[in-house]
User: Fold these one by one.
Assistant:
Number 1:
Amino acid sequence: MHVGLHHYLFVSFLLFSLGLLGVIMRRNLLVIYMSLELMLNSANLALVSFSRFNHKLDGQVLVFFIITVAAAEVAVGLALIVALYRKRQSAHVEDLTGMKL
Amino acid sequence: MFPFPEMKYELFPWLILFLPLLSVAVITLFTLRSKTVSSLISIGAVVTGFVLTLLFINANGFQFSGETSTNWLSIGGLQVDFGLKLDALSLMMLLVVTGVGGAIHIYSYGYMHDDRSMARFFAFLSLFTFSMLGIVLANNFLMMFIFWELVGVSSYLLIGFWFEKPSAGDAAKKAFITNRLGDFGFLFGILMVWGLLGSLNFGVLQSGIAAGTLALGASATLAGLLIFCGAMGKSAQFPLHVWLPDAMEGPTPVSALIHAATMVAAGVYMLCRTLFLFNAGSLHVISYIGGFTALLAALMAVQQNDIKRIIAYSTLSQLGYMVMTVGLNGPTPAMFHLTTHAFFKALLFLAAGSVIHGMHHEQDIWQMGNLRKKMPVTFLTFTIGTLALCGVPPFSGFYSKDAILAQALAQKSYLLFGVGVFVAALTTFYTFRLFFVVFMGREKSKAAAHAHESPLVMTLPLVALAVFAFAGGFIGITNNFGSQFIPDHEALSVAQQLTEPFHNLFPMLCGLGAVAAGLFLAYSLYNNAATDPLPAKLGGLATAMKNKFYFDEFYEATFIRAHDFLAAVADWLDRWILEGAIIGAIRGGTDLSGRALRLAQTGNLQTYAFLFVIGVALLLYFVLGK
């Protein structure tokens, strides 16, 4: 079977949807965080496959950027979650409704 | 613009006008603490004005006619000057305002000496003098209107000077609002003149109308009557006469200055200044309104018991005379009577003030009596004023009143002539009623027995005014006004002026007969009377006269009630429609939608994420899906 662009994009779409579902449905902050990373990586997969099939390097450059930024983001996000956990003794989103008036 | 003769002392009229304003500024800014300094500044300003007027007239003569002006404002085609018109008419009025006004200023120094706000009083007096001089000197309608309103404001301040008395505050408001009604018409009249003729300058208008290049055409009557509305308010003509008697709540010098010599004369002066605008129809209406006012006020005066109110109604009646005469196309006799009236009515008011001062602020004439012994100077000067007001020869009032009656007869207006003669009889009757009750007979109260003569600073102005009230009829006043209004007028010598009424015997005899009848009636009813015998004889008529023919009550029940109703409707609309419905709906709607949107804020991170995704999906659909 010939594997084309569509297949890659479909896998990317599945990964993105799974990530999105995780972000919306899961209760644990750490799991939500992992789902978020999943969404970023599905985007990376789409970019890489565009780059491969269109014979251009733009997509690959963009992926490097995303990986770098995501690494920094993970560092900050995990620090925040740890700080939050220390303060509230919980990492569940239902307990974090401080933004409600 | 016009070829004017050379004017000497061109600066003097400006000085005369602005000195009182300077005095207001200095008093209110610097010397309000010091009674003496403030009053001297104010008196100095008006007396200097008088001296400058004399010097100016001496250098230029009365027959001089000129303008000195500076462009004040120009908007599109509208050019308004701030200019001074100097001719026989305004020069005579300048003399009256600064001369009589000066005497009143000096008198006030004595009369107001115990009042703690004396400095404020003199500041107001100066403000009034400034405004009045502005009306007299104005060379165009707009400038005159501005000073006209300033006179209204300063009279409001002066009538309400004792504002802690509610009646004084009410009287001030009444005077101001009644005047505003007249001024509303006046402003419309001015706008009509501007719209139809394209100029507001008196000189341009007069020469244009005389040459036939400018004409009001079909709306001349309406324009004339609208302009007359202004005079109706200021000169207190029927139906706007109601403010003048109430204005007696002000201090007596104010009554003398504003309500005898100057402010109420402004209406008549304005009519004479703009007489060229009026056509036969409007003059006809003016003459009948004047005659009716004269009659009505004289009847009301018969049954008043307050010394100042009697004189106030007499003022109304005499103003009616003047307006009637203007309407009979006789500006010369009208201005003549205005001038003599300024002398003798200011004198009467000041003498009445002296009586009130001597009686420790008692104003009821039935509490007085036998004051001729206690207050000889006041008595003598009041007598001269009375004789002049009644028109006894050779006092000034005789000449001016005779000129009015002769004018009515010359215009073949027999009804108004009859009214004039009847009013002359009434005038004599009520004036001598006052005279007999206050100065003759015996003391009717303890205060009258202990009355004292006023100080010299008050009696001297009385004497000065008395001289003019006596001699005003033959010192050349008619010559000056005649030269203004009558082409090829011939000046009369003193002897000719003295005998002038005798050339036309019928009106003179009618006038003298009226005086004799009034005097006889007053003598037989009021000499030695302890109470008023008239109510018993006249019954309901006397009550009606005493209550001013119920004009105040009538206005209260109709106009004021209607106005209150309109105000209540406006208040309801404002409170419930504007404030309640419109503003309430907007405010309530904002509040409600805010509360509804607040429900969307759950505080749950995942709800936000979900809504965010839906938002992105919708955006993508609209951007890419089509």
Number 2:
Amino acid sequence: MTPPKITTRAELIDALRTASELEHQLMAQYLFAVYSMKRYTWEGLEPVQLEYVRRWSSSITLIARQEMEHLGLALNLLSAIGGTPSFTRPNMPQRADYYGKAGIKLELTRGNLDTIKRFQRFESPDKLTKKLKFEEPVSQRKAEAWCGKKDKIKNRALLNAKLMMDATGMRAASPGILTTSAPVLGFGWASVQELYEAIRGGFEYLAGTMGERNLFVGKPSLQIFGGPGSAQQQGSMDDLNQYDVDLIGITNLASAQLAITMILEQGEGISANPEYLRWTHFCLFTGIRKGMEEQRLGELAARPVVRNPMTSLYPDVERSEVTLLTNEHTLLVSRIFNESYELMLLLLLYLYSDNVKSQAEVSSLMDAAFFPLMTMFIRPLAEILTELPAFRSAKEKSPEGMSNAGPGFELNGDILLFPSNASWDLFQERFDTIVGMYDVLLADGDPWIGLPNQKESGSDHSRIWARLEYMRSNMQRLAADWRAKWLNIGITTQ
Amino acid sequence: MLILDFEGYFQMRMATDPDPTDELRGVSGYTFAFCGEPDLDHKLHFQPDEEGVWERDFGPGGGPRVGVTVTSATRNGADAPELVGGTIAFVDGQVIEHNGLLVRNDYFIINPFRVTLTSGGKVLLDRVDNLNPSNPNMPENEADSAMLKRRQATTFTSNSEEVAAATGLPNAASVTLIQNRLDRKRSLESLLASTPKKNTVKRAELESRIFELAIVEQWWNLTQGTPGNRPIDRRAAQLALQLSGWNVDMNGAIATNCIGADERYPWNIAFWMGGWDGDAMCGYIRGTWTIPLES
């Protein structure tokens, strides 16, 4: 069956919104899995086993960061053609055919072998999934052969020329693809690769029919990217060599094609230089799967974290697929996580919006959203959650025999812009609310001191309490800086 | 006036962005506590025998060794050779920015800030500096801009020839820095080849370090990383990155004063740090401690 083709701006906007939602969902699933992985020798692993798990965790966080990059690129592509960026997505889990025949099952599961197999399929080149049944794992033998392949063409220019010829030939072989239109409602693509190739085809078709000037009508200033032409020249978002993230601005067909090429290179390895293949998402997951099988760590690598942990039942999920958290203190930590996650999305949405903001405000939004909220709150809260009991009773377990909580990435509806005139104050309320939640949580003594391996020598508190107290102090600082409009940050440039 | 020039390699086993700053093992940054190694302690260590130092093997190519010592000393303009070779310490100091929460763009402060001079096994000088002299116990997260500025570095210099000369690099060109990391990788591969198979912990550590050093080249193979447009990886760039301008008039309590320093005045310390080797988790410091003497 011919995949949907894109011949109108509306279809391209729909497809890009789907792509950005999908990248967001993949990122959350990868992060959930990696935060569940074991970190310490007291968790039952020998040092060498733990080193394997650490390497896998490093690879998955790299992949997750690049999914953030892909989300940013999809939003830039969307903004460039007049679409409105969005961070709305359904809660997890969702049914397996939510993204049609692509078979991308949305659920939050711990980082065990089954989860890695699922991720490997998400990132698989089309070629390796064409004959597979729904949700069937990719053949590991074929995956390793794909990742180990060597191309005879060493010259990059020749390689690019060959790839362009391949792409031209593919289009010629499917003359119907770009000549008739089909609705993009629903998810008609068989894979992520197919979706992005359709998007690339849509950009090329529309640039050809309406002209680039008419296609790229969005304001470049509404995109987030680094480097020349960007307001964030000092940032590190245009530099793969710093944080593995390279956000580029989209202003014409060439930059749109480059962004899509980057996504497919980094993910599935489509058109990637053979020297780079081993770093692609697909090949990294293939390597992790191989390692887990060889080291027999498929079940031992991850903490006993329940599936799809939630603080409450949302209307867009099935009760039978959700694990409702019941431990009082875990629930509060989980709510702080969800508040922090939602606040970060709100800040990002405001950054992408057309609401008037000064360059200083943009810098403050970036400084709050990109570094501290992600790295100093969302990540450690998620890690802590996978160490905490999910249930009120320490003896209670999920049907799968799991007992620990995890970050649900819960959203209580759409992520919508604050009114422009009140945004700064409404963000302040959000920061202050989170500070208050930490206060409530930590006012109740140290309920985690009795958990195994939590007490550190020389301290009266558990490790978890100490981390949460550190976060409270940092959130107080963030809230105070927001209130003071970032006057107390010392030297920032030379 | 007593003037002490000091320099040498320090170790700081700290997590790096985008790991959170209280990370103990390292996951998403480029510094790690590998298998068999203790947790990251995030502290500055100037001497190899300090608790928390963990010096790695580098193979035949060698690598930095921890030790910050006094290289020259003058007392009221006259040489004070008895102090040369003395050791300097920043006791329990941490290089702090809280991932942009406390200070932005890596203009780090060092906190707590307590400096000692030891010679012949005896501590001769020991003084702290307080972010807020009127409230020495104030948490760093409560510091205002003026307090932070007193403690911050002021200037970044990429490809610093001064750093390259101090650490023994032929020069500070990016190609040299990249080659240094590739040389280290080869040296570790050689070390791995000579490490017995039964030493699984050591081998796992070396394999991970080799993997990390290989990242220096990985992005070059992407479309946007074509030859001629190869931004240098931070693992290499920081070998010649210099952060300078730390200049602190130390204002706090004096625990030890065995050389007749005048306690009525601040003791100034000025220094730069740079040459960060993420594989060794070591960097280079060079500075001057200027201490008024009792007349």
